[in-house]
Design brief:
Layout: E1 4-6, E2 12-14, H1 16-33, H2 40-45, E3 52-54, E4 60-63, E5 69-77, E6 83-94, E7 103-108, E8 113-114, E9 118-125, E10 135-146, E11 154-166, E12 169-179, E13 185-195, E14 203-214, E15 219-229, E16 234-240, E17 245-252, H3 261-266, E18 267-277, E19 286-287, E20 293-303, E21 311-322, E22 329-340, E23 346-352, E24 358-367, E25 381-385
Parallel strand pairs: 19-25
Antiparallel strand pairs: 1-2, 3-5, 4-5, 5-9, 6-7, 6-8, 6-10, 11-12, 12-15, 13-14, 13-16, 16-17, 18-20, 20-23, 21-22, 21-24, 24-25
Length: 386
């Protein structure tokens, strides 16, 4: 199609079709040249951006008993409206010389999902033992949106103690209960993140307790007892199930108990197999107020070679207290005993008569004549009186 025509004076002029085409082209060029302006939806109506990051200062590198390098830390989700899951972390492990990493490992945050405005710990090991590793860095590679779990799971810490093992290690014992909400929970998991005195604190270690299933509107006891870095000053507890999550609980660790040096070096005492039974030695799941029960534990002692002592007096103690921190101690009983040389294990019993209904924690201890602990506390027993 011809678009050029002749003017009256013999010059060329644009045909009407050509004029229209040129105007369209000029409009398009001007539109492209203008700076892009954000739309009102992008500025005002867009959903909040989900912000997930490694919390500043929380990372800590150490070497475990098998020689693996371990990096720990906290991941924070600062979004107010959305949870995140499937969070993938890349960790580079380095030595003090090379700029290139010695090892690269991909891992996950320990929680199934991180609720809004919450945090969750991670712990990632090197792929193999390597004594050259002294440093590590982490980077979040990917994550996904997740449904928000209702906070119908709660954590209650009932017992907390720490005992010195050596200059670098304390034996930490933590017990408590998890209260479930209005639906059955499966795969209930409790994570414990131990932190130091720095501000912000570093995560020194992360441990996991698998609680299992909890029925609707029921509770389950948990217990943790293990050796932890002596620099730990507190612990954060996180719990979740397939349907619920629990708000984080932060607990300060008590000053560690130091065992008497001589006894720590020359003897090892233990409390084992603590039971609560009827007067006929039947194990009881539920106690009745006013009926006498027996708190029994097995105590043992092992002496180092060349010791001079032949008789070691001790006191076996049983303490019963309510399952919450606010409740006072309900009962304390004791039994005076003695080890002669390497005596066989001794089974000691203390009678207790429950008076009031409720959930109680039974703790046992073994002290010397100076009221210094001879052993770690015995296994905790949870009993219901109704």
């Amino acid at each position: 199609m011809q678009i050029w025509g002749l003017s009256v004076n013999g010059g060329r002029r644009l045909a009407p079709v050509a004029v229209a085409v040129v105007l369209v082209l000029l409009s398009a060029i001007l539109l492209v040249m203008q700076p892009a302006q954000p739309t009102s939806a992008q500025v005002y109506d867009g959903p909040p951006t989900i912000t997930v990051a490694i919390e500043t200062g929380s990372q800590y590198v150490f070497r475990d008993d098998q020689g693996y390098a371990v990096l720990t830390g906290m991941i924070g989700n600062t979004n107010q409206l959305g949870a995140v899951s499937e969070l993938r972390i890349r960790v580079n492990f380095y030595d003090d010389i090379q700029s290139a990493p010695l090892d690269v490992v991909y891992g996950d945050v320990l929680a199934e999902s991180i609720p809004p405005e919450s945090s969750a710990p991670f712990l990632i090991r090197s792929s193999e033992p390597d004594t050259r590793i002294t440093q590590a860095s982490a980077r979040i590679m990917s994550f996904d949106n997740a449904p928000i779990k209702s906070s119908e799971l709660s954590i209650e810490v009932n017992g907390l103690s720490s005992t010195t093992v050596d200059d670098d290690t304390n034996l930490v014992w933590i017990s408590g209960t998890l209260q479930n909400g209005p639906a059955p929970s499966s795969n209930v998991t409790l994570h414990l993140a131990f932190y130091d005195a720095f501000e912000p604190p570093r995560i020194l270690d992360v441990r996991t307790v698998h609680v299992g299933d909890i029925a609707q509107d029921s509770e389950a006891a948990f217990e943790f007892k293990d050796e932890i870095d002596a620099k730990a000053r507190g612990v954060m507890l996180f719990a979740e199930s397939n349907v619920f999550s629990a708000p984080m609980v932060n607990e300060k660790l008590p000053s560690p108990i130091r065992l008497e040096p001589l006894q720590h070096l020359t003897m090892l005492s233990r409390i084992m197999d603590v039971t609560v039974t009827s007067q006929y030695d039947d194990r009881l799941s539920t106690l009745t107020p006013g009926e006498v029960v027996k708190i029994t534990g097995t105590v043992t002692v092992e002496f180092a070679d060349g010791r001079e002592e032949h008789e070691t007096p001790y006191t076996f103690l049983a303490q019963v207290r309510g399952s919450s921190e606010a409740t006072p101690v309900e009962f304390i009983g004791q039994y005076e005993g003695m080890f002669v040389d390497d005596d066989d294990a001794q089974r000691k019993t203390i009678n207790w008569t429950p008076e009031k209904s409720g959930l109680y924690i039974v703790e046992t201890f073994m002290w010397n004549k100076n009221n210094v602990p001879l052993s770690q506390p015995g296994p905790v027993v949870l009993v219901l009186v109704e």
